[in-house]
Amino acid sequence: MPEITLVTRDGARLGFGCGADENVLDAAAAAGLFLPAMCHEGSCGLCHASVAEGAYEMGSYTKDALSDADQNGVLLCRCQPRGDLVVNLPYPQADIQRHEVVSREAAIVAFAPAGAGAVAVTLALKPHPELGQAADFVPGQYMELTIPGTDIRRAYSLANLPNWDGRLEFLIRLQKGGEFSSYLAERAKVGDTLITRGPLGNFVLDETSPRPRCLIGGGCGFAPVLSILRHLANFQDTQPTHLILGANREDELFPSNELNVLRAALPHLGVTLSVWRPEADWGGFTGTAAEAFSGYLESCTETPDVYVCGPPKMLEAVKAVAQDRRIPPERIIAEHVS
Prior knowledge:
The protein folds into 3 domains: about 5-95, Ubiquitin-like (UB roll), CATH 3.10.20.30; about 105-200, Elongation Factor Tu (Ef-tu), domain 3 (Beta Barrel); about 215-335, Rossmann fold (3-Layer(aba) Sandwich), CATH 3.40.50. The protein has helices at about 25-30, 180-185, 220-235, 255-265, 290-300, 310-325, and strands spanning about 5, 15, 50-55, 55-60, 75, 80, 85-90, 105-115, 120-125, 140-145, 155, 165-175, 195-200, 215-220, 240-245, 270-275, 285, 305-310, 330-335. The model has no long low-confidence stretch (mean pLDDT about 90). The two termini are about 35 Å apart. It is globular and about 60 Å long. Helices cover about 20% and strands about 30% of the residues. The protein is α/β, with parallel strands linked by helices and about 350 residues long. Strand 18, helix 6 and strand 19 (about 330-335) form a beta-alpha-beta unit.
């Protein structure tokens, strides 16, 4: 049986065996190491790592999930070792969970359009014998949702705040031909029971940092950013914070009423709405979220902490701007959505 050694960003070495038909992600879970991952199908890229030593085979995966330029890059959900492997992880040991993630039943209680090609879905958790009714998570985290009667699961970020009522709110982009998107668009109805697994993820606020913050959301990457902003509003936070919300077209932007509520609750909140291809009468910023970010940095007197969630290409562009401006990598918290 091949032996796998994981080396975290902070130098911890974690070892376990991997069966002949197992991928590294599943073998790690069997050993009690639950690594950051979302889709388990080679499309989200969250389980990205790099192989330092050893031979392996890669199963099929979506091109955008793994850069062609990353010669040693692998997706752990698709990586099957053909001998001992040493794998470098891009995150510290603290990001690895040591306990099984909880699965719970939840019923759809509402869904409605949320901008072009997206829906807002609200679930209500069913009571759990140990956890009760509450929805307990950290703003910015996500949940895995499974279509009723199938093994098809997808990960979506939470848009609301933790609560005692068991309410979970999601903003979900409908992908053409996507199995979960087809379910939502064609068959989902109030009362359907889904399986939720989570909370998961480390796209969360560093509340110990005294620096200003820049929150960047693209597409449904606005959901975790919205959850974080609602948290700040709930505590009447006074730290300088700037939101950049990017979209390809104006009709992809989420309704402005929520932004108005946040502006009223957070007097130190700046907002830039960025549209790549707007109509002629557009009055906001014209360009990509990365270009808006570059413009924001021009006016900064202090380097901010950066939180960015959105499609992979948007993340790469924002990170390139941050690197050009010499923002330390540890100040950039990123998570991508499809």
